[in-house]
Amino acid sequence: MLLLALCLASGLSPAHATGFNGQSYVPLVDWARANGLKCYWLKRGDEIVVTNRTTRLVFDKDSRMAEVNGTDVALSFPVASDHGVLLIAQMDLNTAIRPLLFPPRFADAKRITTICLDPGHGGKDTGNHTFWHSEKTYTLALALELRDQLKKAGFNVILTRSKDTYVDLPDRPALANRRGADLFVSLHFNATPTGKDEVEGPQTYCITPVGASSTDAQGEGANFGATAANSAEQKSLLLAYQVQKSLVKNLGAKDRGVRRARYWVLRDATMPAILVEGGYMTHPVESKKIYNATYRHQMAQAILIGILTYQRLVSPPPPALPSTHRPGMNSNRVSIPNPRAVKTESLMTK
Ligand SMILES: [Zn+2]
User: Fold this and answer.
1) Which of 245, 280, 304, 343 is the most exposed place for a label (fewest CB within 10 A)?
2) How far is the CA of 212 from the centre of ligand 1 (A)?
3) How many angstroms does the Cα of residue 120 sit away from the middle of ligand 1?
4) Quick one: which of 76, 32, 98 has its CA closest to 209?
5) How far is the CA of 67 from the centre of ligand 1 (A)?
6) What is the Å distance from ligand 1's center to 275 Cα?
7) pTM of the full predicted structure?
8) pLDDT digits over 214-229, tens only?
């Protein structure tokens, strides 16, 4: 049985915010208390849980990865420790934690009607290449599958490419901007030079906050100014989070987290924009799934569920559908597939 040591603020936390990494840090216990959450140690001094009836956050000392209701989310700065008290950067509370726990009611909310899908690479740009498999082939196959499912759910869909053609990176978000897309979703598959047997699972990127370095940039790029995408940063994070959560849950995949990057295709988009890395072409088991149409169908379904969940959180309800419209996948309102059914199907194809 776990001993739940309540870390009361008195005697445990310093009274004032502290500076690390050039950032203002605050004790997690203080922030938790101010927001009606409680803390207990999973590992004293190293790993802390911040929780209430509906929320569970896990933070680790010196780590840039936090767990938000079961899904990993990259922080911009590592959790710090001062005399046994764990501290979090104020910027991470503002740009990673608060927007997920308390999704703002967006005053400019408008119904999502058009979604731009961006199949990564194409033409002379093959993307990752393993044996006779090119990433560009599978990003397009996934995009076409997702296009069909989104259309059935009532969305308009634009593709940055629908064939094996080369498209310059800046042209991709530019198309979404020009056509007034409400969301931009770039689709990729990953590869790793080392640890091929271990590294697997989807990860979802959204724009890096101003003043921070990207998740995989090892401290570089904190001086990069604001991008067009930073204006939709909170929505992009929420979309990335919901898509990542759905991918992990419905595919039964390993969670490689929500991450931040200033990729070309992300930083020029003026609408909420994410980049999904659907899994690793270098992993012996996951790669075979990526090359399998049934698995890609399930992956598209998981992305659709993430988008619909996001839509429910930020958008006004869609207008009433005409009475001739059949319910089910053709309806914008009741089109969420049963996640359990998806999970069962994915297990059956393993
Ligand atoms: Zn790629």
Assistant:
1) 343
2) 23
3) 5
4) 76
5) 26
6) 9
7) 0.86
8) 998 877 888 888 999 9
Which of 67-71, 85-89, 310-314, 326-330 has the lowest average pLDDT? 326-330
For residue 99, report the distance from its CA to the centre of ligand 1, in Å: 28
Cα-to-centroid distance, 301 and ligand 1 (Å): 20
Fold category of 18-101 in CATH: Copper Amine Oxidase; Chain A, domain 1 (3.30.457)
What's the burial of 126, exposed, middle or buried (CB within 10 Å: 0-12/13-18/19+)?
middle
- Report domain extents, the chain: 18-101, 114-316+326-348
Separation of CA 86 and ligand 1 centre (Å): 36
DSSP annotation string for 76-124: SS--EEETTEEEEEHHHIIIIIHHHHS----TT-----EEEEEE--BTT
Q: Which pLDDT tens digit goes with each residue over 234-292?
A: 999 999 999 999 999 999 999 999 999 999 999 999 999 999 999 999 999 999 999 99
How many Å apart are CA 220 and CA 146, to the nearest integer? 34
pLDDT higher than threshold 60 for residue 348: no
